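User: We ran a pulldown and think these components assemble together. Before we commit to crystallization trials, I'd like a predicted model of the whole complex to look at. Sequences follow.
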Amino acid sequence: MYSKKVVIINKTGLHARPASEFVGAASKFKSDITVNKLDKDGNVSKSCPAKSIVFLLTLGLSKGTQIELSAEGSDEEEAVETLAALIESGFGDI
Amino acid sequence: MILQGIAVSKGVVTGRAFVYEPFKPEITEHIINKEDIPESIKRYQEITALAGQELSTLRDKMKEIDEDKAGIFQAHQDILNDSAMGDEILSLIQTEYYSPEFAIETVYEKFIQILSSMDDDIIRERCADLKDVKNRILRLWMGVTSKDLSQIEEPAVVFAKDLLPSDTATLNKEKVLAIVTEVGGNTSHSAIIARSYEIPALLGIPGVMNEISEGDSIIVDALEGKLIISPSPKEAEAYIKKQKEYQDYMQNLKEYQGIEPYTKDGQRVSVCLNIGSVTDEELASAVFTDGVGLFRSEFLFMSGKELPSENQQFEVYKKAAETYGDRQVILRTLDIGGDKTLECMELPKEDNPFLGCRALRLCFRKTDLFKTQLRAALRAAVYGNLAIMFPMVGSMEDITKAKGCLQEAKDELKAEGIPYNEHIKVGIMIEIPAIALMADIIAKEVDFASIGTNDLCQYLMAVDRLNPDVAVYYQSYHPAMFKLISFVSEAFQKERKTLGICGEMGGDPMAAMVFLGLGIKKLSMVAPSIAGVKKMITKIDMVTAKAIAEKVIHMSTAFEIEEYLKTEFEKFM
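Assistant: Here's a predicted model for the assembly, 667 residues in total across the polymer chains.
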């Protein structure tokens, strides 16, 4: 298992186009990937599979939210690093 | 019949109704036999594939027209292919023996419910996408062919319970005059698409589908949020005029709003904005204005139960100053009393509030309040070209006293070591006739002045501008107004001090034409007036403007002046 924390920086948060891009990127990996929404104390408040756009929306990930990406499988490290970089890039929506 | 809706995309339109009732699935609980499960799953997968094909076709068709809108169908495909939702649907079929259509309905509705309860507008609006995809799958399930808005033949006003994203994306914008729906609001898909196509839209009129029949005559006033069904000939006529005016207005906006205003003979006129808050919407006009001619500070005091602190005020003034950079932002100090009251401060009831303890007079009574505002302004003026303007100045003593308060505020800040702008520019509002008549003397005492035509008119005409019984006596085109303004303008020109106009007349192109002729080169107005005034400026030259002004100040009635200005105006506009 490999995991990493990132903060959502793009303006509209993880919905609409950025969410689609995120799910599209996640679906390319073999590993099971989970998105954990963290509260202000760093505890997990909600989780969902990273490959589901609808579940991702239910997390309500707006700008400034901290999340933890974790993956389990043959390409877990690459998956988490790629997705973290995508989120940190702001999806061209800053 | 007149109904009220939310105008989410502006415009005025008259036309016939087109009633759009797309397929609406009605699914009831249905349990299948265990042996039918494999067949059901196979059918579910076939239908999903079919929906995917439909979406691909739509997306490709859309890509040729509008890349962005094609994205809607991509988003629908993402939903359709959502593995987690798909797994839930399959699991309901396999373990709970739900029929596929009932499983689809159940799972989609579950997520629609979850998303609709979230406190984020953007996410809530995604429910429409889920509903849209669900309807598509269920329609295919029932073997119903699609019906969409590309099939409208004659231009019409489209009425629907709700438009789903795919409806708004496929609509033929040449044929849709306006959109009216029962549900939806400012951030719904229908609203976004209507605005991007510039189609007027009124949303959120509950029950409208029961009131309307195909072919009804319709007026959509998406300026005031009004829908008129089967209007009287008189209403229809009035609206055809309003529609034309609005089209002209929009045309002006496109052509003139962004230009730099020079007269035909090259005189640069300063066109500024009146603002009453610092929302992004208000500040958006900063890109095509020369500054803020009137920044009303009252909103800060009117919005809460408590007086705004110095820091709260500082942040707001700083934001305005920074937005405009080098361009001047004129902050008018608190103008309360008269017709404006406060929740956060009790003011005495007066018999004649307009002649009472308002604005500067009130500030002199409550010097703490006044000085807090002055301190905030002085501090904010470090971050931009912020100037201070005092309202309701009636005498030289008023000016001296107000300046005294300002000096005290400066001294305090200095003693406290807080950065402030020592050289802040100080001006006054000219709205009491007495001070207008003192213009030659007071022009020496202030850095600038701005004429508040609304109050000047009410005080000059001795008319309460809020009393409808005397509205006919409120004549802003009264020759006395122009004579007095002419006198003030001459005095300020002599002292080489800036004089502006910031009342409603500043945004009235006909009156503004006279002001130019009187030598006033700074006009401040609300955002919607900018394009019209800029247009006037580009069409006139100073010689003509002077000749017009010269004639006007020698006329004897407001009526005569208005008729004359209309004729002159039409000559060159």
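Chain A is about 35% helix and 30% strand. That may be worth checking against your pulldown data before setting up trials.

User: Thanks, that helps.
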